[in-house]
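WARN no homologs supplied; continuing
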Amino acid sequence: MSIFHLAYHVDDLDKARAFYGGLLGCSAGRSTETWIDFNFFGHQISLHLGPVFATSRTGKVGDHMVPMPHLGVILPQEDWQLLADHLIAAGLDFTLAPMTRFAGEPGEQSTMFFHDPAGNPIEIKGFKDMSGVFAT
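OK structure emitted
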């Protein structure tokens, strides 16, 4: 699989460093006074100072309305669970608390939604069977 690169705005680089680097455990890469790169679970995100994009809960997935647009990553279930436990213990305010959706169906997945300090929505998914990621 390919590594993706995504660049988007944040409004405070120090808060971004604390959130992505400290809380999520993503290692920081290159940076200047106006942007910073992170290894976001094996992918590159570049956070630049600027106006944060507008989001709204308009995406209907199963029984839930999720923030759109959002970014995310898919992890093996064991890694997802470790991260979920860590974020719960840290007291993170979830938009959609860790849960399983599509239980017993093709594409069964664990998911959680939260926002970074700038308000950017993030979804982290977990799959027991990675072949289910593209299930129909």
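The two ends are 19 Å apart (CA to CA).
OK
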